[in-house]
Backbone:
């Protein structure tokens, strides 16, 4: 995918990832730390994580196409292109956490007693992956913004 509505696809897709990845991360952390939220939001979080998993590689691919259109690359643009590859990994991490939370939810809904070990492991994983994904989006976006609008003074 190279263009959408006459615009570079990367410029449009990136906004979805920039919004959905941190939102998904925040909801996963919320669901990990607050069981009532997990009962209400687990299926939404799974859908969002699946969406991020689809959008991240599409966005990176569209970004690679845009990168290949130029013959001259600044160091910050090269850094942005390298960092853009991170999105695939944090998208996978968000999806794994969402699946783990869904399994946790299904297990808890079938039995009265929650599994403490599973709850702790999923909570730690959600916080680590959530922070990693959010920081990753910030670093990728910062280098992209600097590549487009110039380095900060």
Residues:
């Amino acid at each position: 995918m190279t263009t959408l509505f006459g615009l570079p696809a990367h410029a449009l897709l990136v906004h979805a990832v920039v919004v959905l990845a941190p939102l998904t991360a925040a909801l996963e952390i919320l669901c990990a730390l607050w069981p009532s939220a997990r009962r209400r939001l687990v299926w939404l979080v799974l859908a969002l994580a699946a969406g991020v998993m689809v959008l991240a590689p599409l966005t990176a691919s569209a970004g690679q196409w845009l990168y290949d259109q130029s013959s001259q690359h600044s160091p910050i643009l090269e850094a942005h292109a390298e960092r853009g590859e991170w999105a695939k990994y944090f998208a996978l991490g968000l999806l794994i956490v969402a699946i783990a939370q869904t399994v946790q939810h299904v297990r808890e809904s079938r039995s009265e007693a929650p599994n403490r070990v599973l709850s702790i492991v999923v909570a730690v994983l959600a916080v680590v992956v959530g922070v990693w994904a959010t920081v990753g989006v910030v670093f990728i976006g910062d280098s992209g913004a600097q590549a487009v609008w110039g380095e900060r003074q």
